[in-house]
Each structure stands twice: as C-alpha cells, then as structure tokens.
Amino acid sequence: MPTELPASPLLASLQDKIAQRKARVGIYGLGYVGLPLALRFAEVGVPVTGFDIDAAKIQQLNAGGSYIERLTPDRIQQAHAQGFEATTDFARTAEVDALIICVPTPLNAHREPDLSFIVNTIEAALPHMRPGQLVSLESTTWPGTTDEVLAPRLRARGLEPGENCALVFSPEREDPGNPDYGTKDIPKVIGGHTPRCLALGTALYQHAIQTLVPVSSTRAAEMTKLLENIHRSVNIGLVNEMKIVADKMGINIHEVIDAAATKPFGFVPYRPGPGLGGHCIPIDPFYLTWKAREYGVNTRFIELAGEINHHMPHWVVGKVADALNDRGKAIKGSRILVLGLAYKKNIDDTRESPAVEIMDLLQAKGAHIDYSDPHVPVFPRKRDYHFDLKSVVLNADTLTGYDCLILATDHDGFDYALLQNARLIVDTRGRLAPASNVVAA
Questions:
Q1: CATH code assigned at 138
Q2: Does the predicted model carry a pTM greater than 0.90?
Q3: Would you call 213 helix, strand, or coil by DSSP?
Q4: Residue 236 class from Cβ within 10 Å (0-12 exposed, 13-18 middle, 19+ buried)?
C-alpha cells in the first residue's frame, strides 16, 4: 500500500481530511456502479453527494426510493441518515473533496469508443473544481484515457495532478446478483497519475473497500480491467462456438462442460448462452482493439470472439425458426414469449441483454413478441430498442396463448415445472430437461 504523504500543503490538507473521514466524496453517475459505491461510503461514515443528469433518478433517491432492485429503499434511507444526498446541480462540485466518475462508456455506431459521458461529466464539473481535490475515473476505457483525456483538461483549469490535485484510475468490479461479493468485498485495482496521486487514492478507497491492489500507473489499471473482461469474452466465445458444433453433432454441450469440469486442474467451466450482456463484456474488448490500432496491432483473437458472441442471438432465432417450421409454422404471425429480459439471472439489469436483440430480430421477421421477467416489470428505456410492453404473468392460461417460448435468462423465480407444459420452448441456457417440446439452443 502506498504510504507517501503529499508534499504540497493543499494535498497534505486533503490527506488529513481523508484520514479523518471528513472528505466529502462526489459520485458522478448513480447507476449500477455509482449508487452501490455511494451507499458503501455512506455506510462507513464518509459524507457523500451523488450527481446524475437524470432528474427522475435524483427525485426518487431523495424521496428514499430505489430504481435498482438489489438496493432496497431501506438502504437508501439509511444512507440519507448518514449524510448521503443526490443532486443534478454540478455547481455543487465545489463542495466535494473527491470526484469519482462512474458513467457509461458505450460504443458508437461504428463500434468505436464513445467517451462522451466521461468528457461531458468532467466538462460539467471543471468550472466548479478547485485545487486540493481528487479525481478518480472508474469507467472502463482504453489505456491512456486518464492521462490523455482527463489530465489535460485539469491542467487547462490550472490543476496539476500530483501537485495541487490528485488523479487516479480505479476500475469498477461490480457483479450484480453475486451474493458472495459486494462492493466492499471485491479487491480494487488502483493506479495513480503520480505516486502522490496513488497515495491519496488508496487512502480514500481503503475506507470503503477491504482490499486494494495498487499498480504502477493509470494505464496499467486501465489495461487490467480490459484484460479481465476480454478473458471472459474470449472464453465465452469459445464455449458458444463449441455449443454450435456440439448442436450440429447431436451432443449436449452442457453435459460435456459438466464432465470436463471434473478435471481438478487446467480447466475453467464457462457456460454458453444466447449472447453477451451487461455493460462490460460485450463492449470493453473493442476499446482495446480500437486503441491497439494506434500501435499497429491487429487484435484478431479478441475480434473473432466478439464476432462469435455477436452472432449468437441470430443463431437462437435460427433455432426458433427451425423448431416452428418442424411444427408447420413460420416465425411470421407466431406469438412468441421471451422468458427473461435481464442479461443474467436473478437481477434487473437489462444493459446489452441478448434477449432484447432476440426480440428485435423476431419482431422484424413478423412475430408477435411479449416477454416475462419477474425482475423487470416494464420494458425499460433504451437508446436502440423500444417495446411498449409489460412483463407477462406466467400461468397455465398464459402458456396456451403462445406458439413458442424462448428461455433467454434462466431466473430462479420461473416455475420450470409449469414451463414444461408449453407447446414449444427453446432453451438457450440448458436449464430444462430434454423433452419433445424442448429445443436446445
């Protein structure tokens, strides 16, 4: 753990405030990453102000409500009692001592990095910043973003990282729905623009996170996050490709994975599915492929995995078409119910969910689409997709009205015994036992 104390009076004062838990933390972006972190700082007695441009979110939070299923209203209200408040007013940046940026980093239409959320956030905060503050970027991005995008903007304001302000990168590692690892339990990587920056960043985060993992630079921390997500993307791409091969050969890929997983060394089981979801794995690898081109490197392995994973919703739709055709029906005019809108089971997070793309592909082919998800009662707002739908309640009468069900996300809350009574169900998760009305996809 870095122990170097800041040399300048401003940074020494910030160090003292952090040590005494008097430094007010500003969390910029109150989504699936920012809000849990804000609540965690509040829990340990660190004053927190949450910033977001979505006025509806701010209103709900300040009324003691929550828009994230696993973060109960009780936790929001407890955080308020411990000094948490939320605002859309970026002028209040002047009140905070540490700015932690937790905003999305999507891809644009050309699958290139879109840093507009990061840039807009820092540009909105800069007019109100002052010497003696710390800036931490948590949004996943390409190596060099902290040094090349944030640092110059701070300098233009007269803020020099390591001298009169601090700048770090500490990538988020949230895993929604994981009962074993919450915000405080997941080791946190952190890199500083300078050693002084790193010392201040670790001093701040150690209040809220049990284990910190300092690295030599912000670029090393940025690359660490990309490696974690690319590792998963590549391995999921491999097992998805194996699923397609096994399907053609009439082999149950889930049986094969279970058997391979009995090997006590050298094998890690990954599970296939209908495609990649969540804000990280479908997107982050392309941040590195884009940056690598600047260095004359073609990341073929990463891009191949992305191509395979991107194709999976199309493959599922093909399986649906074949299954309906075998029963004398076409996709066009069929009533199809998608089970599970979230990108993985037992959560309400629908970001980049393959279920949504499957719905869009089927609707484009003329199907009548509905969905059922106990965690997502109303289809959420999205930039690229819109369905004016509410979650269908599952019962025996409901099932008789659909020509096909697609198990896209295997929530534990579904009644799988009931689902076995459907006319046809296409299982993308390997959850259902083989039957005449069950088609593996």
A1: 3.40.50.720
A2: yes
A3: strand
A4: buried
164 domain residue, yes or no: yes
Domain identity same for 60 and 188: yes
**Nearest of 86, 105, 114 to residue 28 by alpha carbon:** 86
**What is the pLDDT, as a whole number, of residue 281?**
86
Structure-token pair, residue 382? 């999205």
Parent domain of 168:
9-216
Strands 212-215 and 335-339 turn out to be unpaired
Query: SS3 for 119?
Result: helix
Which of 194, 216, 238 is a domain's end point? 216
**Residue where the block lists tokens 């296939």:** 272
401, amino acid identity = G
Give the C-alpha separation, 275 to 165, whole Å: 42
296 and 188 in one domain?
Answer: no
Asked whether 341 and 376 are in contact (CB, 8 A), the reply is: yes
CA distance 303 to 289: 7
Q: What are phi and psi of 427, to 5 degrees?
A: -100, 110
Q: What is the pLDDT of residues 43-82, one digit of tens each?
A: 999 999 999 999 999 999 999 999 999 999 999 999 999 9
Count other Cβ atoms within 10 Å, centred on residue 434: 9
Active site residue 197: no
| Residue from 171, 167, 138 nearest 153 by CA | 167
Residue 249 CB partners (closer than 8 Å, separation 6+):
none
Sign of CA dihedral 65, 68, 70, 76: negative
pLDDT in tens, 6-49: 568 999 999 999 999 999 999 999 999 999 999 999 999 999 99
Give the whole-angstrom CA distance, residue 285 versus residue 299: 10
Which three-class secondary structure state does DSSP give residue 396? helix
CA 163 remoteness from chain centre: 34
Beta strand 212-215 pairing with 188-192:
parallel
230 belongs to a structural domain: no
Residue 51 phi, psi dihedral angles, 5° rounding:
-115, 140
